[in-house]
Amino acid sequence: MRVLLVEDDASLGAGLQTALRSAGYTVDLLTDGNAAVLAAEHGHAEAMVLDLGLPRLDGMQVIQRLRAQASDLPILVLTARDRVSERVAALDAGADDFLGKPFDLSELQARLRALIRRRAGRRSETLSCGSLVLDPAKFEARIDGQRLELPRREFALLRLLVEGAGRVVSKDALQQHLYGWDDDVGSNALEVHVHHLRKKLPNDWIRTVRGVGYMLIEQPGAA
């Protein structure tokens, strides 16, 4: 899950970025409104966490510009401005949710999951493909009831493949969701993660489509 975090407080931004990464998110940290608009236009994020008090363009202007461009990127406003009138204004401008500072990290994560789930048209928190079940809230994957021990990137990779089960997910799409701008990524990093994931799943569940990407199939040997 790739998230744009827009926060000009350096300490808070770095802390949130670290916490969200630990929870399995790929997080790009931005510190001004102009950069936020450009990143939303050209990036592959699934949600934005947006402070209102930003330099260059404030958060309200960011929301208005994105909605004027017909962007459907879920926006969670995270701000110390807690007057009801400001919450109403942000929601009316096109924000999807609002969380005041100070906040509980678990609530922020739950609200993010809900926004991403809603955008994808899912009601359930869990994802499944045959006997494979993923629970992003618990950062847990099970197959035939047995838990798989997956580091953050392998879990994120498996989630993307489960969401696209039966279809080819391109390497470019996987890389865009798995790695942030400041990640040091080797040329074969994705292939290494796929290799490790294959060893933890039944044979032939992950099929390579050469030159394109990968596909998760429910039954080994299925067409």
UniProtKB/TrEMBL annotation:
<keyword id="KW-0238">DNA-binding</keyword>
<keyword id="KW-0902">Two-component regulatory system</keyword>
<dbReference type="Pfam" id="PF00072">
    <property type="entry name" value="Response_reg"/>
</dbReference>
<feature type="domain" description="Response regulatory">
    <location>
        <begin position="2"/>
        <end position="116"/>
    </location>
</feature>
<dbReference type="InterPro" id="IPR036388">
    <property type="entry name" value="WH-like_DNA-bd_sf"/>
</dbReference>
<dbReference type="GO" id="GO:0005829">
    <property type="term" value="C:cytosol"/>
</dbReference>
<keyword id="KW-0804">Transcription</keyword>
<dbReference type="Pfam" id="PF00486">
    <property type="entry name" value="Trans_reg_C"/>
</dbReference>
<dbReference type="GO" id="GO:0032993">
    <property type="term" value="C:protein-DNA complex"/>
</dbReference>
<feature type="DNA-binding region" description="OmpR/PhoB-type">
    <location>
        <begin position="124"/>
        <end position="218"/>
    </location>
</feature>
<keyword id="KW-0597">Phosphoprotein</keyword>
<dbReference type="GO" id="GO:0000976">
    <property type="term" value="F:transcription cis-regulatory region binding"/>
</dbReference>
<dbReference type="InterPro" id="IPR001789">
    <property type="entry name" value="Sig_transdc_resp-reg_receiver"/>
</dbReference>
<dbReference type="InterPro" id="IPR016032">
    <property type="entry name" value="Sig_transdc_resp-reg_C-effctor"/>
</dbReference>
<dbReference type="InterPro" id="IPR011006">
    <property type="entry name" value="CheY-like_superfamily"/>
</dbReference>
<dbReference type="InterPro" id="IPR001867">
    <property type="entry name" value="OmpR/PhoB-type_DNA-bd"/>
</dbReference>
<keyword id="KW-0805">Transcription regulation</keyword>
<dbReference type="GO" id="GO:0006355">
    <property type="term" value="P:regulation of DNA-templated transcription"/>
</dbReference>
<protein>
    <submittedName>
        <fullName>Response regulator transcription factor</fullName>
    </submittedName>
</protein>
<feature type="domain" description="OmpR/PhoB-type">
    <location>
        <begin position="124"/>
        <end position="218"/>
    </location>
</feature>
<feature type="modified residue" description="4-aspartylphosphate">
    <location>
        <position position="51"/>
    </location>
</feature>
<dbReference type="InterPro" id="IPR039420">
    <property type="entry name" value="WalR-like"/>
</dbReference>
<dbReference type="GO" id="GO:0000156">
    <property type="term" value="F:phosphorelay response regulator activity"/>
</dbReference>
